[in-house]
Write a structure and sequence with these properties.
333 residues; alpha/beta; Rossmann fold; 5-stranded mixed sheet; two-stranded parallel ribbon; 10 helices; 11% strand; globular
Length: 333
């Protein structure tokens, strides 16, 4: 598979730029009395959706990152720190995604259980492009792609991990959690199969993906998609881009015959529009953006993880000339 050379860029100086909009939001609501169930904090929008679906209504769930926010940075509020300080557990994506989490946990006084949904998953990325890379506490390489959710096969494993550990924490609700997990896994398996059928409508040589930042290794490997490149050549959507990197990307787009650039919902489309004009290709932005680091707002096609994947798949298939994606199976209707 051809890909541009990617360099992980340090974003420590600018990590707060997009994170300033992130606020904590509890399923119990601000100022409302919490129920008697577990108090759980979830980090990202995807992890929040999966955890909420599995745990059901008896859990008091606080989601740190909100729709439209970058997953690579977080500016804690007093409410989020209080929720963490009182939480029985925190559920995180892991795989090096939440680099901002350790100081937030320390500030909050969190002493609950950490549920790393990436536990046991093999990570992917252009590791040969990085001269220096280390591992986190779970043995995960920080130079690997943390965007595990782009392949629903990974989310199946993540859902099972979350379900198993929540059931151990709340034995009284274990049967319900197990049933919810089984039902959700059935939906994810149907999604996985449907996405395969949809991408099969596009000839392999036309599955050429250009996105805002480097976040689709798992999707590409699962469905034989070529990642031509990204506007920000980094796994972090807060990274900067050089003029030389833009020139290389334009050349790669022209050289491969890629038809489109897909902007991402959590990022502005200005750079995508500029590069698309230079490379003379279509740009998909606004309501036609991909949902990557963040799910969409309530009422949008990307409101849930499954909805975001359906939206992304339909958009790619149509942009690549594959026509309309197949009808959804009943379990996903």
């Amino acid at each position: 598979m051809h890909s541009t050379r990617r360099t992980l860029l340090s974003a420590l100086g600018i990590a707060g730029a997009l994170a300033l909009t992130a606020t904590a939001c509890s399923s119990a609501g601000e100022g409302e009395d919490a129920g008697e169930g577990l108090s759980i904090v979830a980090t990202t929008t995807q992890i929040g959706d999966v955890t909420r679906t599995i745990a059901g209504d008896d859990v008091n769930l606080t989601q740190l990152l909100q729709p439209g926010a970058s997953a690579h940075g977080f500016d804690p509020t007093p409410a989020s720190l209080q929720a963490l300080g009182q939480a029985d557990a925190i559920v995180l994506n892991g795989a090096g995604l939440e680099d901002w989490l350790a100081p937030v946990l320390e500030s909050s006084g969190f002493d609950g259980v950490m549920i790393d949904a990436s536990e046991g998953l093999a990570l992917s990325g252009d590791l040969e492009d990085h001269d220096d890379h280390g591992e986190d506490d779970h043995g995960h390489d920080h130079d690997a792609d943390p965007h595990l959710w782009t392949d629903p096969a990974n989310v199946i494993a993540m859902a099972e991990t979350i379900g198993d550990q929540l059931a151990q924490l709340d034995e009284g609700s274990a049967a319900t959690i197990s049933e919810n997990t089984d039902d959700y896994v059935e939906q994810l398996e149907a999604l996985q199969h449907w996405m395969g059928e949809a991408f099969e409508q596009v000839p392999v040589e036309d599955r050429l993906l250009v996105t805002s930042h480097d976040s689709f290794h798992y999707l590409a490997e699962a469905y034989d998609i070529e990642v031509v490149g990204s506007l920000l050549p980094s796994f972090d959507d807060n990274a900067e881009v050089s003029a030389a990197a833009i020139d290389r990307l334009v050349a790669d787009i022209r050289g491969t015959g890629a038809r489109a650039i897909f902007s991402e919902s959590q990022l502005p489309a200005d750079l995508a529009n500029t590069i698309a004009a230079e490379a003379d290709v279509e740009v998909y932005s606004g309501e036609e953006s991909l949902f990557t680091d963040s799910l969409g707002a309530e009422g949008s096609p990307g409101e849930t993880y499954i909805g975001s994947q359906i939206h992304n798949t339909r958009l790619m298939v149509e942009a690549w000339g594959g026509g309309e994606a197949p009808e959804l199976p009943d379990v996903l209707q």
